Amino acid sequence: MDKDKVKPKRRQLKGVVSSDKMDKTVVVTVSARKQHEKYLKYHNVSKRFKAHDENNEYKVGDKVVIEETRPISKDKHWRVVSKI
User: Of 44, 53, 70, 77, which alpha carbon lies 20 to 30 A from 24's?
Assistant: First the structure.
C-alpha cells in the first residue's frame, strides 16, 4: 500500500529575484494582475517570498521558478527550482 502512495503536486510560482544579500536565501517577487470585484478595474498585486538557494547562484533580476517545500526557517518555505 505504501508503494502506491503518490506525493501531491507542489505549488510552483514564477517571479523575479529582488534581493540576494542573505546567505543561501533569495527574495523572489511574484506579480499578478487582479480585477477589482466591484469596479472591474485591473491592478497589479505583488508578493515577496523568501526562497532557499543552496549554492548562491541566482542574482538580482533573474527570472526564476520557485516551488513550495517543507519549512526551512521561520520565513522560508520555498526553494528555487530553476532559472527561466
Answer: 44
Write out pLDDT tens, residues 33-60: 999 999 999 999 999 999 999 999 999 9
Fold of the 9-83 domain: OB fold (Dihydrolipoamide Acetyltransferase, E2P) (2.40.50)
In whole angstroms, what is the distance from residue 59 CA to residue 56 CA? 8
Rounded CA gap, 71 and 50, in Å?
Answer: 11
**pTM for this predicted structure:** 0.86
For residue 24, the model assigns a pLDDT of 97
Q: Give Cβ neighbours of residue 17 (< 8 Å, ≥ 6 apart).
A: 26, 27, 28, 29, 58, 59, 60, 61, 62, 63, 64
Comparing C-alpha atoms, which of 11, 17, 5, 12 is closest to residue 50?
Answer: 17
Confidence of residue 8 (pLDDT cuts 50, 70, 90): confident
